[in-house]
Each structure stands twice: as structure tokens, then as C-alpha cells.
């Protein structure tokens, strides 16, 4: 296992979220949720990789189609004041919804951290203390898989971009 800082968790999670199509704002939400999961010693790396690979199959709140709801978009909807009554709706990877809304409400579901999709029950509890962890761990293979996903958002290098100062080279030879 590799020991990483929570800042590294946040940075990697934001890039991975952007690579699978989330906006910058939602990517920041995913990054903060990943930090929360890591600080609680929950499987943040596997959950992040699954979110990146499965995000396209989730439906946005209010979107018809019978697909599981996107936990990230649903979390943002709920935090922005959306109605918290989910009925029997299935929420994809509910670990993300739980981490996203933890400051405002408690989400519970059956099936453990990495359940594929489940109905979620929401309640507004008393304030919970913030996580206290300062480090996280991730396997080298999972880190490499996440870095490959994050790499999708990088602009390809070219002779023109290098001539204009992108990258290091002679511009940064101080």
C-alpha cells in the first residue's frame, strides 16, 4: 500500500471526476467526498475508480429511464435544497451520496460501502464530528488505474505548445 496525503487524495479525485465528465463544481464535490472517505479509512480508491467507470450509466435527478440515480448529482441536488424523499429510487454507488451529504444529513442503505445500487434512506441527525484522519492508503495498482483515468483530461503535447512555453524545457531552466 502507498501512503498518501489527503491533499493528494483530493487532487487525484478531482482530476478523475473531470475525466468522466463531471463539471468542475461537481468534481470539487467528489474530491471533498473522497477526502472524507479516506479520512474515515473507507475504500475511497475503489469507490473512485468505480464511479469513474460507471458514471455514464447513472441518471440525473428527475431524469426518466429507470436507471440508478447518480450519487454525485443527487448529492448536489439535495444540498441545494432539493426534496429529500427518494421513495424506492435506486441510487448508484451510495457511498458517494453518503459522503457528499454527510454534513447536512445521514444517508443509510443496505449492502455495505461498495454496493452497486440501493434504495437510500435520508435523515437529518445532530451534527457529526468532522473526520480526524490525516493520511490515506491506496494500492499501487489502483493508484496507477486512477492516474490513467485522470490523464484523460490533459492536453496532448505538441511542438507548437512546447515552443510557446508549455512544459519545462528552456523556459524553466532557472
The stretches of 5 or more residues where confidence is low (pLDDT under 50) are none
Biggest sheet strand line-up: 1-6
Q: Indicate the radius of gyration in whole angstroms.
A: 18 Å
| Biggest sheet features | 2 strands, antiparallel
> Shape from CA axes?
globular
Helix count from the secondary structure assignment:
7
Mean pLDDT: 88
Strand tally is 6
Q: How many domain units? A: 1
SSE order, as H and E? EHHHHEHEEEEHH
Going by helix content, strand content and strand pairing, the class is: alpha+beta
Report the end-to-end length measured between terminal Cα atoms: 36 Å
Helix content: 40-55%
Q: Please indicate the percent range of residues in DSSP E strands (runs of 2 or more).
A: 5-15%
How does this model look, in words?
This protein is an alpha+beta fold and 174 residues long. The chain has one domain (2-157). It contains seven helices and six strands, in the order βααααβαββββαα. A two-stranded antiparallel sheet has the order 1-6. Strands 2-4 form a two-stranded antiparallel ribbon. It starts with a strand and ends in an 11-residue tail after the last helix.
Amino acid at each position: 500500500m502507498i501512503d498518501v496525503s489527503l491533499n493528494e487524495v483530493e487532487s487525484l479525485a478531482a482530476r478523475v471526476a473531470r475525466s468522466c465528465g463531471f463539471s468542475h463544481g461537481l468534481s470539487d464535490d467528489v474530491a471533498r467526498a473522497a477526502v472524507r472517505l479516506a479520512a474515515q479509512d473507507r475504500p475511497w480508491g475503489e469507490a473512485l475508480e468505480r464511479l469513474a467507470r460507471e458514471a455514464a450509466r447513472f441518471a440525473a435527478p428527475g431524469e426518466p429511464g429507470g436507471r440508478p440515480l447518480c450519487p454525485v448529482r443527487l448529492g448536489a441536488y439535495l444540498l441545494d435544497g432539493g426534496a429529500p424523499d427518494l421513495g424506492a429510487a435506486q441510487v448508484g454507488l451510495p457511498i458517494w451520496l453518503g459522503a457528499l451529504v454527510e454534513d447536512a444529513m445521514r444517508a443509510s442503505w443496505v449492502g455495505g460501502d461498495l454496493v452497486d445500487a440501493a434504495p437510500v434512506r435520508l435523515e437529518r441527525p445532530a451534527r457529526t464530528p468532522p473526520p480526524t484522519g490525516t493520511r490515506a492508503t491506496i494500492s499501487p495498482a489502483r493508484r496507477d488505474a486512477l492516474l490513467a483515468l485522470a490523464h484523460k483530461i490533459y492536453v496532448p503535447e505538441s511542438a507548437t505548445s512546447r515552443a510557446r512555453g508549455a512544459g519545462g524545457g528552456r523556459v524553466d531552466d532557472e
